[in-house]
Amino acid sequence: MTRARQDRLLGFLVRDGEWATAATLADALGVTPRSIRSYVTSLNARVAPGIAVESGPQGYRAGSDAAVALRAAGDAGTPRDRLHTLVRALLDAPDGIDVFETADALHVSPATLDADLARVRGLLGGTELTLERSASRARLRGTESAQRRLLSRLAHDEMDAGSFDLSALRRTLGEGSVGAQAFGPFKTELVERLGTMGWFVNEFGIGDVVMHIAIAADRVSRDRPLDTVAVAGDERAEQAEVAAVIAELAERHLDVRLGAGDLRHLAILVLTRVVAPGAAQADSARERTRAQLEPEVESAVRDIVGQAAAEFLVDIVHEDFLLRLALHVQNLRLRAREQAWSRNPLTRSLKSTYPMIFEVAVFIANGLHERLDIPLLDDEIAYIAMHVGGRLERSRQADQLLTATIVCPGYYELHELLRSSVDRSLGQAIEVVGVETRVDPDWASIDTDLVLTTIDPAVPGERIVRIQPFLTDADVERVQAAAGRIRRSRRLARLRAELERYFEPTGFVRGLDPALGEEGVIRLLGERLVARGVIDDDYVERTIQREQLSSTAFTDALAVPHALGMTASRTAIAIGIADPSIPWGDGRVQVVALVAFSETDREAFQTVFEQFVEVFSERDSVQRIVRRATSFAAFLDELVAVIDG
């Protein structure tokens, strides 16, 4: 547990990239500041004389060797390393292991090894494997496919945030694994060959597929191939072509000859995880995609996307988007049948940065589960969120641009050249709607979002930016910074107005009890809103069901539980403060905001959801609110103060 917390601490610092106090980090991990200092010492010891974590007057931040420390192999005697070693031994021994001999080899007592075997049983849930114990022997029983899934789980546990890491893979498979040093060139050539075959390659999934190829090569080298499975006659034509490429590369790079069962399995993984119709198929991509789709999948996707568009007022009902998502869902359905889930290294950042998009993805995922019986994990939901985000980015409206007026006293064509430079350098952020060429313009009458002026204004202001007649890089940066400040202030101003309207004073609870768990906290806050007639007991139950789909801990400090479906009598928010933090999902939070949305406030959903999460993504703001929010009035005062800056 200690090493896991060390890794989590370092991962937190790496993601954030800023200084953090020991108290803040202690809240995030649910430990004491003294423990944080101990973890920092241990992390730096991993890379001595390097620096994994820097220390200073402002606290701690990730050092230059942080990435190395995250990937550093743990002490062979740590529980996690010993557990992985034990699982590898069980997987490599069809006839089982001798408990006493294994305990001697690991330099632990038989009692300790018995405890480790109990932990191995805990890993086997959902793997179709069983651990049998007879006298002094222990062995795993189950199919080769199930054993490989267990190896995959161990490899992911070794890797940081689901990213592909050859060193971690080798630790999982063992130092004697096949051709570990060859997988870099293998991956490079596989991507190139898939590209020449006319496919776009999903780099987020290719690492996961190469990991499965590594596992297959290792198991085949130990005479543990997958059995050949009879296939239907309508097998995809591309499957044989992809299998041939994998067979060639495996024999050349890894010196392993894969059998028919392994090649079929790996070809399916490639076709369902990492490729999509590419540029070579652009002219007929839509027709080819539709021809591949199962009618049941296409119909379900169309219906559910239409429901999501109406529920969240988002513009996602477009033919290309529907077809691409339907193909992804069809591939996902095939992966689900084999329990071949795909990791997504962007899951955490998508959830915290784009909570609204992630929420739309959860809605779609829930609909797919109900219609097609596809169980979806957070990583798979994140891939759906990437599809949704891509569609929304394409359909973004031009009215999101800020308007600007250029003030540049006339001198030949100087103002025309300046406007041309502004359009060229800043056209994606602002729209120039006017140019003032007088040396004494009526500053008060200029009502655009920004004023870009080459002369000093009569009265300086937040929206006025001084620039040079010939636009410089520094000018561009200042204008972009000013535009960012204006956008943020507008978002937060809207948020302030909405929150003051929706907060329920009787729904404020300070001192959440960690023993309640997520469900208990939701019920506690839900009771306050039920008592006010805002929601009913069914809404509370549906909020718990939504939480089970995917954790609503959108930042390292904030959870926003809510139900799918806007059925509250009015929109209201109940707030719970936890000091110290409480467990929530895979992390810990200090603020829980139970939000009940009504049908009439549908448009407020995005404002409340995204901007509220944005406020609580700033660590200093969270600490200020949590420490000072001793009552509802104090909470609201601090929140407004943070919003107003």
Q: How many beta-strand segments? A: 15
* Count, helices: 26
Strand order of the largest sheet: 9-8-10-11
CATH-assigned fold name of the largest domain: Mannitol-specific EII, Chain A
CATH architecture of the largest domain: 3-Layer(aba) Sandwich
Strand content: 5-15%
**CATH class of the largest domain, anyone?**
Alpha Beta
Assembly state (oligomeric): single chain
Structural class, by secondary structure, is alpha/beta
Fourth-level CATH superfamily of the largest domain: Mannitol-specific EII, Chain A
What does this structure look like?
- Residues 292-398 form the PRD domain.
- Keywords: Repeat.
- It holds the Pfam family PRD.
- Residues 501-645 form the PTS EIIA type-2 domain.
- It comes from Microbacterium salsuginis.
- This protein is an alpha/beta fold and 645 residues long.
- It folds into six domains: 2-71, Winged helix-like DNA-binding domain superfamily/Winged helix DNA-binding domain (Arc Repressor Mutant, subunit A); 90-140; 166-279, Orthogonal Bundle (PTS-regulatory domain, PRD), CATH 1.10.1790; 293-394, PRD domain (PTS-regulatory domain, PRD), CATH 1.10.1790.10; 399-471; 493-644, 3-Layer(aba) Sandwich (Mannitol-specific EII, Chain A).
- The protein is built from 26 helices and 15 strands.
- The strands form five sheets. It has a four-stranded parallel β-sheet, covered by helices on one side. A four-stranded mixed β-sheet has the order 12-14-15-13.
- α22 (517-531) packs antiparallel against α23.
- It is globular.
- Residues 230-234 and 279-283 have low confidence and may be disordered.
